[in-house]
Amino acid sequence: MREIIRMITVLTVLCAFAGGLLAAIRQGTMERIENQQLQFVKGPAIMQILKGCSNDPIKDRFKIADGKVERSFFVGKFEGKPKAVALETAAKGFGGDVGVMVGIDVDTGKIVGVAVTTHSETPGMGARAKTDPSFVEQFKGKSSQQTIRVTKDGGQINALSGATITSRAVCLATTEAGRIFKRLKPEIQKDLQKFK
Amino acid sequence: MAKTLVQEFTKGLWEEIPPFRLVLGLCPTLAVTKSVENGIGMGVATTFVLVFSNILISALRKLIPSKVRIAAYIVIIAAFVTVVELLMQAFTYPLFLKLGIFIPLIVVNCIVLGRAEAFASKNGILPSTADGLGIGIGFTLALGALGAVREVLGAGTFLGHAVFGPSFEPFTFMVKAPGAFMCLGLMLCLMNLVGKK
Questions:
Q1: Which entry of A77, B44, B71, B176 is 20 to 30 Å from A69 by CA?
Q2: pTM for this entry
Q3: Where are the domains of chain A?
């Protein structure tokens, strides 16, 4: 009996210590990690979409509370005026969530660009959504306020051959971005005033 | 026959070098040695875990009941691996992306649990530290060497810089899985040849 109590005590104390240590380190590194992710993962996608902008979209960003979620919006200034915002959405792909950064023109509601950020899709197949620029090029100029679909589902986007599920995920995520944009438009426009 | 501290340290660099002598930790060895940078990065991460878990396990060796020792070691090792993972995310993000899933897999790397069970649980803190450091640095060197062979032959670069001219046709077999096995086998053969005096 004493032996069992000893075993339980040792393991419990050990786990409590491990938990505490990890919580402390996580707390200490959380902000730095967020910055690193912005720089290396979302950064390239944002720069791709808002190419030619005169500011630093990563620095010029603001957050809006959308229900329980906090969404980040990255501002792209063109000709001195904040013209577009980029936001990140995700949809279920083949191997997991496909993260998509969508750039929307705030005045016209048109899609300025789309770029895949994170994914677990098959290399050479669904992963081409990130590596093949001609796929995401198709989204440019389309209205963000419509449901975007692949041609197989009656839409206008040519899916990547052999990667219909991934293509559908990108369409879903882009459509969702449009819906979020419409829903939060008044707040977005208000926050954009700060960047004029 | 007690060894000196220095001997505990240097044995990890030759006689008991994983993965060539101890033949442990082969999975990450094959997977991350596509380039020198990845290999050394993985080696450093593993060394960190080895040293700290050896120290803690050695310090607690009289307190952990024998029947739950494996569970206790795994908790300690997993905690340090997570610490390494968080630190890599915070300070070396591109390397973290490249090593991917193999960082959490350090928990089940046989080298770490093997040294904990075979050495740290039976020896003092200082020898355990030396053991962890030696084996860890030996592992890093082995990964670096294997990574160098595979990167130079398979991609024509070393640490990302081109070594040969543009006319070099890379031996891409080397950066794939079969090439890794062959390379490892040849290194093992070489070490045995040199070791047999």
A1: A77
A2: 0.75
A3: 46-195
